[in-house]
Each structure stands twice: as C-alpha cells, then as structure tokens.
Amino acid sequence: MITPNIHFNGNCYEAIQVYKDVFDLDVKILEKNKDANPSDYIVDEKHLNHVYHAEVFLASGRIIMSDVLDDEHTPGHTVSLVVTFDSAPEVKKAYGVLEKGATIIHELQTTTYSSCFVSLIDRFGIRWELMTEQTEK
Asked: How far apart are CA 86 and CA 82, in angstroms?
C-alpha cells in the first residue's frame, strides 16, 4: 500500500480543521506529540501540541499528516510517499537499496504505530517512509 504523507511546520491541526470543512475529511487518528510514547519521539514543551500522527480519509483515499520539527521541514520535501510492508525484513530490504546516496531523516526504528520504520530522501530527491503497519512483526 502507498499512502501520501503531508508534513507541516507546526500547523497540521489547523490544516486538518480547514480540510475537514473543505473536503469533509474523515479523521480516523489524531495524536499529538504529548500522546506519543516518549521513546518514539522526544520533543520540548513548545512542540507538545503539534500533531505526531494523523490519518484522514479524503473520498476513499488515506492520507497521513504530521508536524515535523523546524530542522526537518524542508520546502520541496513536505510530501512523502509511505510504503507499507507486511514485515520488518521487507522494510529493511527496500531500505538497503534506497539508502545508497540518500539523506536519512529517521533511522530504522520501532515506533508506537510501526514495528519497523525509516524515513529518507533518496538520491533522486524523493522522500520515502518505509514501514510496517503492525507492531508485532
């Protein structure tokens, strides 16, 4: 499955509210940084109310949205493609190919929502997030 992920610079919640009015978004998940497991993502007090992970549906398509820290917000790289794999070994295999010449944004890690996650900008300038949906594989 491939899902677009839109990265905001601290105004994700506001954007979701606007898009709800415009597109009648169906918001399935909306977690703020203060709701995240601290081992996933440690932020300072000023970022606690930023969106950590949101999943919305526009028509029948899923879109992931989140705020990123200032040093992670790069104009031109605010949209990434999230590729969801069935298992961690599949994520690691894809990462092994894409990491050559890439800029790594988030190293391979386990998160609240994924047993295996990595984020990078490949040598062609495309931002990818590779992950498993579940946390047990």
From this structure: 13
Can you say how many angstroms the Cα of residue 92 is from the centroid of all Cα atoms in its chain? Answer: 17
Assigned fold of 1-73 = 2,3-Dihydroxybiphenyl 1,2-Dioxygenase; domain 1 (3.10.180)
| Overall size of the chain counted in residues | 137
* Tens-place pLDDT, residues 19-77: 999 888 999 999 998 888 777 766 778 888 999 999 999 988 999 999 987 667 776 67
Check if the beta carbon of residue 120 is closer than 8 Å to that of residue 99: yes
Nearest partner of 30 among 63, 3, 61, 2, judged by Cα:
63
100, two tokens: 């050559």
Single pTM value for the model: 0.74
Does the domain at 80-137 match CATH 2.40.128.110? Answer given as no
